[in-house]
Automatic annotation (TrEMBL):
Domain FAD/NAD(P)-binding: 8-187
Gene Ontology terms, MF aspect: thioredoxin-disulfide reductase (NADPH) activity
Protein name: Pyridine nucleotide-disulfide oxidoreductase
Keyword Oxidoreductase: yes
Organism classification: Bacteria, Bacillati, Actinomycetota, Actinomycetes, Pseudonocardiales
Catalytic activity from the UniProt record: [thioredoxin]-dithiol + NADP(+) = [thioredoxin]-disulfide + NADPH + H(+)
Pfam families: Pyr_redox_2
Gene3D superfamilies assigned: FAD/NAD(P)-binding domain (3.50.50.60)
């Protein structure tokens, strides 16, 4: 028989918003269940950017992603929310008495007084680099969970948004070299990311510029060949 649960508030999504929502509900004396498909709380910050410096949270000048998540979870845990991690919400219906019921992939049914959706953009789906097909995990990655893995490496960052420029700057003190390429005519990153760059900041290629091919070489699992568009 599928398991059933009853709670005052069901929060779908254990990212920063969901964790703070659990705190707010607990602060008001409400029983709270938090569901997330990921195996740990923290959402994409915990899964993809644990070492990234987060700078756009009110009152916090800058803090690593893992530390932001730890603080949010500590705050929420003071009121004992129940976490169902690694559990995906699959359906939302109303019970005969009008209360919302959420079904989970494992068959569990959660009956709640209210359901709060804080799932963000959902599953992370990177924009693939066509030229890098076959090199994922062999020198090509779409996020940087551990910057130290790039110690003393030549790194090519492809992109012109906040994440690309931010990671290029973060990797600059660690890597042997960092080159930033972007296919558009200008970077889309916010001003503070670009105007605050030190004189020795990562080297940008002439723009617009795109990666046309990747290949293996003896000193590297993956090397890329950028090409300036005509």
């Amino acid at each position: 028989m599928p398991a059933s649960m009853n709670t005052d508030i069901l929060i779908v999504g254990a990212g920063p918003t969901g964790l703070y929502g659990a705190y707010c509900a607990g602060f008001r004396g409400l029983r709270t269940v938090v569901v997330d498909a990921l195996p740990q709380a923290g959402g994409q910050i915990a899964a993809l950017y644990p070492e990234k410096e987060i700078r756009d949270i009110a009152g916090i000048p800058g803090s690593r992603g893992r530390d932001v998540v730890a603080a949010l979870k500590e705050q929420a845990d003071a009121f004992g929310p129940q976490y169902l991690l690694g559990s995906q919400a699959t359906a939302l219906v109303h019970s005969p008495d009008g209360r919302p019921q959420v079904s989970l992939a494992d068959g569990t049914v959660v009956d709640a007084g209210a359901v709060v959706l804080t799932a963000g953009i959902g599953t992370f789906t990177p924009r693939p680099l066509p030229a890098g097909e076959g090199f994922l995990g062999r020198g090509l990655s779409y996020f940087v969970p551990d910057p130290s893995a790039h110690d003393d490496q030549d790194v090519l960052v492809v992109g012109g948004g906040d994440s690309a420029v931010d990671w290029a700057l973060a990797l600059h003190p660690i890597a042997r070299s960092v080159t930033l390429v972007h296919r558009r005519g200008g970077f889309r990153a916010h001003g503070p990311f670009t105007s605050a760059a030190p004189p020795s900041s990562p080297t940008p290629r002439s723009r617009p510029c795109s990666v046309t091919s990747c290949f293996a070489r003896r000193t590297s699992a993956c090397a890329a060949r950028p090409s300036t568009a005509s």
